[in-house]
Design the sequence.
């Protein structure tokens, strides 16, 4: 059934055992994003040093899709260069906005491809993107701050 | 339990129930508090307008224009009768309840010093914590524009208006009070003729204007504006088996005729020069432009339909379904009702949370079973904060729902809970 | 004369032409400038929405809500393409052009000191003497509210914008210019890309905002907002073979996102507390409440229909009919055309007077022959004064009119003249 | 044909040869009424003395129906007592709003019954009533002024 294609095992695992869900102190930048259509919120701490994503930690209220997505995102992007990270965010975003036609490149997105099914549910795309957009915002602010 | 309504018959009059959803599921539509489905007679009334009588009402010198005018004004008469207004001139067609409330707020904001509608620093506007954003933000903006202060009634733990500070809220400073008739989240009915008669009397005693947001009541129970003793009342057609794009503002004639206009343009003027214009009395004063004629006519047909079925029977039917649903839902592990847990002064809207399952996930699962509910903050964000939840799942019933829909809801919620919690 | 359109085919797609009027007369509908008739495809698109996909767009977690959202947003995309907007986010659905213009005027009125939209004493708003009340009174009211001054272009004897005082009207004081694209009385097309390019350049040079009222142009000729170089443009669905109850405001994204909201309520907010709210970017910022979904979808179908027939062909067809009508009418004794008497930069709207016969009487007689025209001041009272008439008779043509309709009009006017003058 | 039932000979006669269409000076009250839906206007001078309508004169722009109606009204009501005049205005108004069912009492309304046909054309009822409403307004103002 379709519900399983949306809620893949990987998603529910991340939902139940979220990674990096505890705000580390002294971030380079902290951002707070809200999904205005449902009220879900995320606070994201980015540690950015020498053009590199040193750490991503977060705290959030939200549905399983958004929580799992924050978790996957924080694992995937930690340690990446600014450029790599941005390109992965874009790749993830493209997949989510493809309405099911882009299944995602597992080598690049790793656990992130589990969200390919979400792209068939337009009302949930924002849930999956919330944390990634927060990260992008934080990264851009960090770069600006560094310059 | 014998139902007050013949739901099979009613369902057959709503074409949407012929479709299946998410594969082969029958449609179990429990989202009527967001928008209702439409019976064929409403769609036919609109189509009939367009295919036989379409022309600009009040503007042409020809037969079609005459007929369009008669149909449009006929719809106004139907709304007046439906609400027991004392005159058709008290009925203003807007595009939605949202526009209706903004109309009153902007009109008051346009009143000059000296006008009895003029607001200023020191005056007070009162709302409640259970208002839909549509009956909150226009008043915030009016307060900001005029310097008046915005105050509000809180909500008790069991989802009722908290009147404990009645005297400090409703006194000689209070110029405008805007309250919902039924909460679109809690289901609470504010019974201004019963439990809350003291509140109403106090509003009257201090001479404040009283607006009732009746979006969630007019479609479901008999509303009589004269009995309610308010000054303005509003609802949206689309929640009352009518078309989208039409709302109603009822107001007392003697007020409407003195209020400054809101939207300006054609058909609402008395005289126009390049420098200035003078305005017609209500309702024309508030209906600038070629009106939403087909939608008004459709709304007339919708009210005819509700009358035919009988609002008394609809309400009775909904109370029975609500009781069945409350009983069923309360038996589910981890489920909490947000709002009154019995059917006294309560409409057919039930919000709830299930521990460990986010409303979005719950709604998604229900959708997969063919059950349409709403999840989120329901345009009542302050109320969510009041109950310390981010969002709820909301099921709402109407005349086309039956006991089997309630059974499906209860089973669906339990099944979804197990899907997320027990695997 | 070969027509650019197959009118018989087109007529067969508009069900209203199956009816007879005033006894056994076929319907000769020459009142499209007031409101147009609707093809079956538009009615079917609305019905299809209601019978298969009806739910609250942007609000539900279920399949119907998803589909409703897609249809509603799909309609927005169609409007954007139709107007050649640079993004869908530049399209705001309103209830009518009247609301669109009021939206801009109120939003500007809501701008605080410091905002680039803020107006104050010493600033100037410019309109023209040929505006419809809908593009005049909202600016009078805005001027009165802000202390800005309202000035206007006059109209020449042959019905063109009088630019003789261009420099004193459009200078550094000028903050807002609102002009019609085509007069609903004179038929004059204000060719901002051609004859009036100097006016447009001057508006741009002084940095004023420029709004075009395109109610009478969008339905009849290809309008490209990027080519027109304006900041806002508006039209009504019901004049463009679309439903009643829907209008469009196009605006540049960078402006819309900075403008204060107009109507406030659900679906346009970012965050809400009891005290205050923050707002989403456009278009949501300006679409409070459950939107007129079925009407937007119907408008999408209407624009598809116009595209299919081709606006170039429609315009060509209308120019031919207008030429035929002007020639025919000019041959009638005592008849004067109010507006340009040739077809250069002229739409298919013809106003005229007949000496000794009041427009009301003329319209009444034509109605008796099955010919629907409009009589009166056409919501352009200052223009009537300018031409020293109390009222005119107005015939307007559209894609479903043909040469036989023009013949009937000319014969009808002459017959009516004789009825009143020669018995 | 129906056009003739609207434009009765009597109406066209009054239209071409209007009675009392020239404002007499020194009226008790002058009123100016406008039909906002079409722009037609009437100025009416009422001479009122000892509870009696001494004279009604008027000037107007408007259609044949409104012009003829002013003419008929001024003839009919001249010389009447306030009470008689008001009752005739009401009778005329009732006829006009009857949608064709009330043909009017010729003994009371005299030439006024020619307007019975107008009641079948809702858009024209206002034209026929314009002058009568102006008269009613002027009369009420005169009475107030007298007291
Ligand atoms: C030129 C013009 N502007 C504005 C309007 C107002 O349009 P609506 O009444 O649909 O709001 C009209 C039509 O009535 C018009 O012809
Ligand atoms: C209580 C209440 N008030 C106001 C509204 C606003 O109605 P609309 O969106 O139709 O303008 C709604 C529905 O959304 C509502 O439930």
Sequence:
């Amino acid at each position: 059934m379709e519900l399983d294609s949306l809620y893949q095992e990987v998603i529910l695992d991340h939902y139940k055992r979220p990674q990096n869900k505890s705000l580390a102190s002294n971030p380079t930048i902290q951002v707070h994003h809200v999904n205005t259509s449902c009220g879900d919120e995320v606070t994201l701490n980015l540690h950015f040093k020498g053009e590199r994503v040193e750490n991503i930690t977060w705290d959030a209220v939200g549905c399983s899709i958004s929580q799992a997505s924050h978790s996957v995102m924080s694992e995937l992007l930690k340690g990446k260069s600014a450029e790599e990270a941005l390109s992965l965010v874009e790749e993830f975003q493209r997949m989510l906005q493809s309405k099911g036609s882009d299944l995602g490149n597992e080598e690049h997105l790793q656990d992130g491809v589990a969200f390919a099914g979400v792209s068939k549910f337009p009302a949930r795309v924002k849930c999956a993107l919330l944390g990634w957009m927060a990260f992008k915002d934080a990264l851009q602010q960090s770069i600006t701050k560094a310059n | 339990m014998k139902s007050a309504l013949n739901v099979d018959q009613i369902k057959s009059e709503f074409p949407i129930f012929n479709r299946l959803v998410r594969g082969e599921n029958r449609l179990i539509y429990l989202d009527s508090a967001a928008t209702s489905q439409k019976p064929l007679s409403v769609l036919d009334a609109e189509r009939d307008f367009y295919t036989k009588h379409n022309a600009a009402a009040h503007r042409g010198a020809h037969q079609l224009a005459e007929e369009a005018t008669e149909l449009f004004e006929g719809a106004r008469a139907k709304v007046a009768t439906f609400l027991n207004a004392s005159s058709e001139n008290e009925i203003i067609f807007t595009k939605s309840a949202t526009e209706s409330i903004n109309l009153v707020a902007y009109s008051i904001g346009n009143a000059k010093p000296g006008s009895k509608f003029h607001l200023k620093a020191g005056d007070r506007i009162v709302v409640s914590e259970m208002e839909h954003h549509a009956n909150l933000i226009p008043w915030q903006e009016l307060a900001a524009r005029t310097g008046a202060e915005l105050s509000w009634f809180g909500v008790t733990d069991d989802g009722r208006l908290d009147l404990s500070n009645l005297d400090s809220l409703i006194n000689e400073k209070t110029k405008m009070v805007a309250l919902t008739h039924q909460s679109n989240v809690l289901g609470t009915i504010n019974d201004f003729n019963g439990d809350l008669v003291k509140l109403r009397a106090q509003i009257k005693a201090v001479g404040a204007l009283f607006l009732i947001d009746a979006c969630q009541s007019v479609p479901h129970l008999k509303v009589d504006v004269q009995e309610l003793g308010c000054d303005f009342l509003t609802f949206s057609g689309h929640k009352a088996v009518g078309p989208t794009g039409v709302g109603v503002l009822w107001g007392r004639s003697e007020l409407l005729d003195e209020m400054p206009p809101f939207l300006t343009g054609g058909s609402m003027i008395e005289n126009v020069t390049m420098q200035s214009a003078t305005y017609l009395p209500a309702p024309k004063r508030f209906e600038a432009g070629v009106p939403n004629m087909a939608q008004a006519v459709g709304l007339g047909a919708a009210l005819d339909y509700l009358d035919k079925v009988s609002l008394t029977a609809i309400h009775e039917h909904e109370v029975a379904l609500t009781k069945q649903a409350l009983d069923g839902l309360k038996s589910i592990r981890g489920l909490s009702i947000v709002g009154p847990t019995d059917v006294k002064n309560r409409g057919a809207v039930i919000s709830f949370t299930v521990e460990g399952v986010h409303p979005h996930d719950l709604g998604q699962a229900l959708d997969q079973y063919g059950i349409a509910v709403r999840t989120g903050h329901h345009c009542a964000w302050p109320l969510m904060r009041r109950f310390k939840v981010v969002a709820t799942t909301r099921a709402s019933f109407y005349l086309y729902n039956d006991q089997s829909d309630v059974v499906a809801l209860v089973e669906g919620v339990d099944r979804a809970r197990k899907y997320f919690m027990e695997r």
